[in-house]
Amino acid sequence: MSSLLVHVALTDSDSIIPNAKSTETVTDFYNRGLMTRRYALAGVACSSIVSCCCIVTGTVIIISTHKISGTIQVISPITNLQSEMLSLTLSFIVTLCTESIGLMHNISLRSALASESRLIFSTNLRLMTAAHGWCNPNGVLLNGLMAVLLIISYASASLAQESGFIVGFPLLVLGIALFLQVIITLAGMRAVKILTWSSSPFDLTAALLHHTQLTPASFQCMRSVSDLDIAEGPAKPSEAQPSAWHSHPRIQKVVVSLWGIVVACAGWAVLVRYKYTLSPSSSSSKWWSFFTDFNSSYAVGYIVAKKDDTISFQLWILVFVNIAVVQGPLTLGLHCAELIANVIQNERQWRCATARKGLHTVTNPLKLFLINPLGLFLFVVKPVLHWMFGYAFHFGFWTAFAIASGGNNAFAVGDFVIWTLCIALFIFACIFTFSALRRPRGPQPAAYGHLQTLANLVDEWSPVMWWGHKEDGLLYCHAGRDFSVLRGSSIDALKKGRAIIRCWM
């Protein structure tokens, strides 16, 4: 390596460090992630099919009923529990589609940031980080539009089904929202050169090194991501590493936003319960059952007057604005929670480098998804929370669902349902806060997917890597790629701090 000469000058002039290789040899390996590419394209293709089905079905319903508020009944008779399970299924389908689209959108955005030398972490807030240029498919304008379309997708899912009726207009809007997300994502993919499709931070780091978009820094092999601002020099091993809260600049904002949603939800429930009780019937015994009939489960609402028994286009716009404004913070908050899940997973994968089996950089992307407990939890909880919100913030149709009276439409929210949503959000925020504050143990410096840190810590790249104490006998010991499969003595040397560790890269 180029910095090998610097180290030799600092130690004995005749010292020879084995395993030193040229930069070309070290950085010429990285996985281009072709399997991830196939998964991403398949997911986007399935999302396109779902969007087209929604557009066609919604259009057929509207045309066949000759009104924009047209509905068709798919299940009759239906209980309220069955109706809500149908809504939950629709929310889960929307989650599958948006996550598939988000995978490709994240890869294209990551590549765009790398081409501008602005990619710091392998994981970013996809909808809140943008490349330069207003017309850029990965720029601020279209990224903002992607955020709006994501909110509209979940809002449409909340409105597309009610009591066994499929409502044409929300289903049409859902299809259009998903289709536009697919178009923007494909445009972003074509607008940038993707060095690697792999979602692994190690493949990304190696690719950036290979294409000279990233350069390792000398004497940093015992420095974690939170120590990069500290001057170079020898460092003793640490027994515990910094948490994600202290290592990633946006983690704190994400955690605060999650607790802000919990507080807002609690305030919403208190406001509903004690300020705007519509009738004494709302406190009946049925109130404490989650799946109740509309007449007894809603505590507040407002009436939108209309001339006949149909819902106009203007009223539909009001419906979407109402739900999107209230549901928007929840949608964006859950999107931001992905950052914590992915950053924690990146660190868990990196810390496998001190395990007996080592760090396997080439891994099936589906396996990576399945072994990410926080990511799996978020994937399952996300549609459930959106469904719970849809049940709490309910829009009833006079013509089909008999929630309002006098030929009007009503928005209504349920006290108990909101408290249930608040408790669920509280548990969700606790889990992610604990994960963000947890400090990894051991001398291996924490990286959390920080690309420069990984470039400093890994001195040789291969499909399987171990990290640890490299050798003794010189003025300084060395940390980096360790070729020893038996990890005990190597890691013990670091844990006991028997020598000052200095980078030789």
Average per-residue pLDDT, rounded, comes to 77
Strands of the biggest beta sheet: in what spatial order?
Answer: 1-3-2
Strand content: 5-15%
Into how many domains do the coordinates divide?
1
Describe this structure in words.
It is a single chain. The chain has 505 residues and is mainly α. It has one domain. The chain has 17 helices and 10 strands. The protein has helices at residues 4-10, 23-27, 34-65, 80-115, 140-159, 168-190, 201-210, 244-247, 251-275, 294-297, 313-350, 365-370, 373-392, 398-401, 415-437, 451-457, 488-495; strands spanning 71-73, 161-162, 165-167, 300-304, 359-360, 393-396, 409-413, 464-465, 467-469, 479-481. The strands form 4 sheets. It has a 3-stranded antiparallel sheet. The protein has a 3-stranded antiparallel sheet with strand order 4-7-6. Strands 5-8 form a two-stranded antiparallel ribbon.
Short description:
With 505 residues, the protein is mostly helical. It is 54% helix and 6% strand.
SSE blueprint and pairings:
Layout: H1 4-10, H2 23-27, H3 34-65, E1 71-73, H4 80-115, H5 140-159, E2 161-162, E3 165-167, H6 168-190, H7 201-210, H8 244-247, H9 251-275, H10 294-297, E4 300-304, H11 313-350, E5 359-360, H12 365-370, H13 373-392, E6 393-396, H14 398-401, E7 409-413, H15 415-437, H16 451-457, E8 464-465, E9 467-469, E10 479-481, H17 488-495
Antiparallel strand pairs: 1-3, 2-3, 4-7, 5-8, 6-7, 9-10
